[in-house]
Design a protein that fits this description.
Distance between the termini: 67 Å
Strand content: under 5%
Radius of gyration: 29 Å
Shape: rod-shaped
Order of helices and strands: HH
Length: 96
């Protein structure tokens, strides 16, 4: 998880911040606020982890597809180069 390792933390902290703002705005007592914040942060950390996993799989699949296409193109170029060499070899021979 190179590209997506920060997603769970960002999602969790954003949800926690919004939860704090809403709790302060509604005037909740501290115990209710703390329980709600903990629950929100746990749920959104798990959701962020799921999103990061899905995105990472998508990135890996796209990279594998690009690599396969590059290898196919490289192989086609190598075949074309060998065809050119064979053709050139035939034209160099004098006809009897």
């Amino acid at each position: 998880m190179k590209k997506t390792r920060w997603i769970p933390a960002i999602v969790m902290l954003t949800a926690g911040f919004l939860s704090c703002v809403m709790s302060i705005y509604r005037g909740k007592d501290f115990l209710t606020f703390a329980k709600t914040l903990l629950l929100v942060m746990l749920i959104f950390y798990v959701l962020g982890g799921i999103v990061a996993y899905i995105l990472q799989r998508s990135f890996d699949a796209a990279a594998a597809k690009a690599k396969a296409e590059a290898e196919k193109q490289e192989q086609e170029q190598a075949e074309e180069a060998s065809d050119v060499e064979i053709t050139e070899g035939k034209s160099d021979k004098p006809e009897a």
